[in-house]
Design a protein that fits this description.
The complex is a heterodimer of chains A (about 230) and B (about 260).
Chain A lengths: L14 E10 L7 H22 L4 E11 L1 E11 L16 H10 L14 E6 L7 H9 L2 H5 L1 E7 L5 H8 L7 E3 L2 H20 L4 E2 L26
Parallel strand pairs in A: 1-2, 1-4, 4-5, 5-6
Antiparallel strand pairs in A: 2-3
Chain B lengths: L3 H5 L6 E7 L3 E8 L9 H21 L6 H8 L2 H17 L6 H7 L4 E7 L2 E7 L3 E6 L4 E2 L12 E2 L11 E7 L6 E7 L1 H4 L5 H18 L1 H18 L7 E5 L4 E5 L1
The chains are: A alpha/beta (about 230), B alpha+beta (about 260).
Chain lengths: ~230, ~260
C-alpha cells in the first residue's frame, strides 16, 4: 500500500483584498444624487461578484464608510463580496471627508491587514468640498503602509465636486478623478471601479520598488463620459 | 511550478531555480521574474539570474581568498556588484541588440534572486527582492539569516534590473564553527509563503519538509512536490511557486520547481 504523505505546512488561503467605499452623504447629495449613488452601487454588486469569482486566488472583502457631519461605518464588518448587500444611504449635514479618511486609515495598518494581503482599493465618491481638515485625514491615511500602497479612485458627482481634492486623494498623476455629471456616468464609473479596478488589484504582477511612479497597481483607462444633455446635468 | 493565475491568463512560469554541486561546494538559487507588462522577458531574466548566481558563487568558493574569516567576508562583499554586472552582461547577450536603451532592456528582464552557497567552512546567503530564505538549525530553531526587507508589502519588490540594485542586496556569511549549524536551508519565491494563512502556517511547512524528508526520504518527497506546489498555488496565492532545499549535513540538495 502506498503511503499518503500530508502536504507540508498549515492552512492555505487565497489572498484578502479589502475594498472600501467612502461615500459622501452631505446635505448637497440629497435627492437624486444619493438615490443614484445607491442605485449605482447596488447595480454594480453582481458584476463585482462575477469579477471576484473569476479569480479564486483573491478573497474580496467589502466595507463602506459614510461621511457627512462626522464619519461612520456603513458596512463596518469586512464582508465577503459574495455576501455584499447595499442598504440605502441618506443625505444630511456637512462634508467631513477628512474624518472618513481617518476612519479608513484605522483599518489600513499591518496589524489589521497582514502583509500577504493584496493592495486595498479605496473608492471615494463626493459631490463637494471637504468641510473638515482633509489634509490631516489624508496624512493619517498615507502614514499607514497599506494607505500608501492602496489603489485610490476618486469619483466627483456634479459640477461642484472638488476635483483637486479628489486628485490629492488619488495621489497618482496617471489616474485622474472621474466626474459624473449625470446618472448614467455615475453608474458607469461605479461599475468600472467595482469591476475593472477590482480585477487589476486582485492579480497584480510584481512592481519594482524604485520604478513605481504611478502606484503599485497599473489601472486601466476609465470609460469616457457620456455626451452631456444639458437637461440631465447635475 | 507555474501558478494557477498564470495558467488562467496563459502566462508562462516566470520563476526559475538551479543548483550545482562539486567537491568544494553546493550552490542553490531561485528567482522570480516580475511578470508585469514592463517586464515581458522576466522568465528569461530569472533563468539568467540563477545561472549567474551558480557561476559566481561557485567561483567564489573556489577562489583563493585567504584563510581567515575576515578576508572571506571582504571578498563576499563584492558579490552583489559582481552578480549585477554578470546578470546585465547576460541580459545584453540574450537581448541581442533588440532593446537600445539599457535601462529599458534590464527592466524587460527584471527578476529577484535568492541563493545559498555551502562550502566546507561556511554557508553564504544572499537575496535581492521578495521571497524567503529560512534556515532550520540542528537544534530545531527556525531562523531568517537575512534581514527582512522593510517596506516591501503589497506587490513591490527590489530587483536586479534597478540602477541601484547592489544596494538592495542582503548578504550573510556564517562559519560552521558557530553553533547552531543549519540542518535545512529553505529557499522559496514569494508565491509560496503568500499561499499560507499566516506566517506560522508557512513556517510549519519548512519544519514539515525536514520531518518528512527524514521519515520518507528525499526521492519520495521530490515525487510529491509537483502536486503539492500545484495545490498550493491553486488554493493559495495563484502565483508561480518554487521551493528549493539543501541539507548541509549531507551536502545533498533537493530542489524542485
Amino acid at each position: 500500500m502506498t503511503d499518503i504523505i500530508k502536504r507540508p505546512g498549515g492552512a492555505m488561503a487565497n489572498r484578502p483584498l479589502h475594498f472600501f467605499w467612502l461615500a459622501d452623504c452631505s446635505g448637497s447629495m440629497y435627492g437624486e444624487k444619493i438615490e443614484q449613488l445607491n442605485y449605482a452601487i447596488r447595480n454594480a454588486i453582481k458584476p463585482m461578484q462575477d469579477v471576484a469569482a473569476d479569480n479564486p486566488n483573491a478573497q474580496v472583502m467589502v466595507r463602506a464608510i459614510k461621511f457627512s457631519t462626522g464619519a461612520q461605518w456603513h458596512i463596518a464588518q469586512a464582508t465577503p463580496v459574495e455576501d455584499f448587500k447595499w442598504d440605502n444611504l441618506t443625505a444630511n449635514g456637512v462634508t467631513d471627508m477628512g474624518l472618513a479618511l481617518q476612519l479608513a486609515a484605522e483599518q489600513l495598518d499591518v496589524t489589521q491587514m497582514p502583509e500577504r494581503c493584496l493592495p486595498p482599493v479605496l473608492v471615494l465618491v463626493s459631490d463637494g468640498q471637504p468641510t473638515d481638515d482633509f489634509n490631516d485625514g489624508l496624512n493619517t491615511l498615507m502614514n499607514k503602509p497599506w494607505g500608501r500602497k492602496s489603489v485610490r479612485i476618486g469619483i466627483g458627482i456634479g459640477q461642484d465636486a472638488d476635483l483637486e481634492v479628489l486628485q490629492k486623494f488619488i495621489g497618482n498623476p496617471e489616474i485622474r478623478p472621474l466626474q459624473a455629471n449625470n446618472a448614467e456616468d455615475l453608474v458607469k464609473y461605479i461599475r468600472w471601479a467595482s469591476t475593472v479596478v477590482l480585477q487589476a488589484a486582485s492579480a497584480p504582477a510584481s512592481q519594482v520598488k524604485d520604478q513605481v511612479s504611478g502606484g503599485v497597481v497599473p489601472i486601466p483607462q476609465a470609460p469616457p463620459a457620456s455626451d452631456i444633455d444639458a437637461d440631465d446635468v447635475w | 511550478m507555474r501558478g494557477a493565475s498564470h495558467k488562467r491568463s496563459d502566462k508562462p512560469n516566470q520563476d526559475a531555480w538551479a543548483f550545482s554541486q562539486n567537491y568544494t561546494c553546493t550552490v542553490l538559487a531561485v528567482a522570480d521574474g516580475h511578470g508585469s507588462s514592463k517586464h515581458t522577458h522576466s522568465e528569461i531574466g530569472a533563468q539568467l539570474a540563477v545561472q549567474v548566481a551558480l557561476t559566481l558563487l561557485n567561483d567564489f568558493a573556489h577562489a583563493d581568498k585567504g584563510e581567515d574569516s575576515r578576508q572571506i567576508k571582504q571578498a563576499a562583499d563584492y558579490l552583489p556588484s559582481q552578480i549585477v554586472q554578470a546578470w546585465r552582461a547576460a541580459v545584453d547577450n540574450a537581448d541581442n541588440g533588440e532593446t537600445e536603451n539599457p535601462k529599458d532592456r534590464y527592466s524587460l528582464y527584471g527578476s529577484t534572486l535568492i541563493a545559498a552557497l555551502i562550502s566546507t567552512d561556511y554557508v553564504l546567503y544572499l537575496q535581492i527582492g521578495d521571497g524567503d530564505l529560512l534556515v532550520l538549525t540542528d537544534d530545531g530553531q527556525l531562523q531568517h539569516p537575512l534581514p527582512k526587507n522593510i517596506g516591501l508589502i503589497a506587490n513591490e519588490t527590489f530587483s536586479l534590473c534597478e540602477a541601484k540594485a547592489i544596494y538592495h542586496f542582503e548578504l550573510a556569511l556564517q562559519f560552521f564553527n558557530h553553533k547552531p549549524t543549519p540542518a535545512l536551508i529553505f529557499l522559496a519565491t514569494d508565491g509560496y509563503a503568500n499561499s499560507f494563512t499566516d506566517q506560522a502556517d508557512f513556517h510549519q511547512a519548512v519544519e514539515d519538509f525536514q520531518q518528512q524528508i527524514t521519515t520518507h526520504g528525499a526521492d519520495k518527497i521530490q515525487h510529491c512536490l509537483a502536486d503539492w506546489l500545484d495545490e498550493t498555488s491553486e488554493q493559495g496565492s495563484g502565483d508561480d511557486v518554487t521551493v528549493a532545499m539543501m541539507f548541509p549535513s549531507v551536502v545533498q540538495e533537493q530542489p524542485a520547481e
